[in-house]
Design a protein that fits this description.
- This protein is of the alpha/beta class.
- The protein has 3 domains: 3-80, OB fold (Dihydrolipoamide Acetyltransferase, E2P) (Beta Barrel); 86-236, Rossmann fold, CATH 3.40.50.300; 251-314, Orthogonal Bundle (Ribonucleotide Reductase Protein R1, domain 1), CATH 1.10.40.50.
- It is 23% helix and 25% strand.
- It has helices at residues 109-121, 138-153, 169-176, 191-198, 281-287, 293-314, and strands at residues 15-24, 27-32, 35-41, 57-62, 73-78, 84-86, 89-91, 95-101, 125-131, 158-160, 180-184, 209-210, 215-216, 224-229, 232-236.
């Protein structure tokens, strides 16, 4: 995170830099060293296809007096991003907190793996957070920990929490401090409830699970970055139940986004995709129980999805 942009020394008369917190209807809330400002883009930025994302660092020209619509300044430049996500639309993120529920709604494991692929592809550190752990009995919790152990074994941080009971909240907070994190995951898993538990003064709107659809109702309509502490920011995002992989992601890149496949030796063929090739050490490691079979099978499904997409594209 570029903490320097909040330094008052950056102000040069009417020019300053700021962090975009949210945007709606052509207006953007931007945090500057002088406080939060309502801004509009100037000139070509209004039609720029790249857009302005929450998380962007922007250069502003502050107005001498508040303008029409409560505008305090004009965005004159979007500074280069070091990463970005398309869904949710957010930029310059240090950490992606991938939130799911242990149940109600049921855990969507392939969605989790897709989110991990997205994070790795965009060079964003992942943190897996399972909410609603209070509904598990001690025996069920032990079984669930075995299910998620393959993620921990490859170095992906994981925390079990309960927004209702407060379990694991201190552990989660310690993993958020000093970063800009984005909360992402399907509707109904309790992202907004977790943020309310972390910082009750936020009073974010929460919703219930749709009994007819079996998934959560959307309660967050737009991405909004919240300043939790001096150097701690969290992006609350709309939930989703489907996730399209990046258009630029190539089949050959997919295996490189799985830490599970590292450190098992070299396959017979360079560029092995760990599918049907002979002499594949990844397939051998799966057979020997060194790589989780369920996660490997989900990898194959994601690979097939990418392959089908490439075939359609070339057709």
């Amino acid at each position: 995170m570029n903490k320097a942009l909040l330094d008052p020394a950056l102000r040069e008369d009417s020019l300053c830099e700021g962090l975009v917190l949210s945007g709606f209807g052509g207006f953007y809330q931007v945090l500057t060293a002088a406080g939060e400002k309502t801004c509009k883009p100037r000139g070509r930025l209004q039609k720029d296809e790249g857009g302005i994302y929450p998380g962007d660092t922007v250069r502003l020209e502050l107005l001498s007096a508040t303008g029409e619509g409560g505008v305090d300044g004009m965005i004159i430049q979007v500074l280069p991003r070091f990463n970005q996500l398309q869904r949710p639309k957010v930029a310059n993120i240090d950490q992606a907190v991938l939130v799911l529920a242990v149940d109600d709604p049921p855990t969507d494991w392939i969605l989790l793996d897709k989110m991990l692929v997205m994070a790795a592809y965009n060079q964003i550190s992942p943190l897996i957070c399972f909410n609603k752990c209070d509904i598990l009995s001690p025996e069920e919790k032990e079984s669930f920990l075995k299910l998620v152990s393959p993620y921990q074994e490859v170095g992906i941080p994981l925390v079990l929490v309960s927004a209702i009971k407060g379990e694991g909240i201190d552990d989660l907070l310690s993993l958020l401090r000093g970063k800009i994190s984005v909360f992402a995951g399907p509707s109904g898993v309790g992202k907004s409830s977790l943020l309310n538990r972390l910082y009750p003064e936020l009073n974010l709107t929460t919703g219930k699970i749709s009994q007819r659809l079996g998934r959560g109702r959307h309660t967050t309509r737009h991405v909004h970055i919240i300043r939790m502490e001096e150097d701690t920011f969290v992006a609350d995002t709309p939930g989703f139940s489907l996730l399209d992989l990046p258009e630029a992601l190539m089949l050959s890149q997919l295996p490189t986004l799985y830490p599970d496949f590292a450190d098992h030796g070299s396959c017979r063929f360079d560029g092995c995709i760990h599918y049907k090739e002979p002499g594949c050490v990844v397939k051998q490691s799966v057979a020997e129980g060194l790589i989780d079979e369920a996660r490997y099978n989900r990898y194959l499904k994601i690979y097939d999805e990418l392959k089908d997409r490439e075939v359609k594209y070339h057709d």
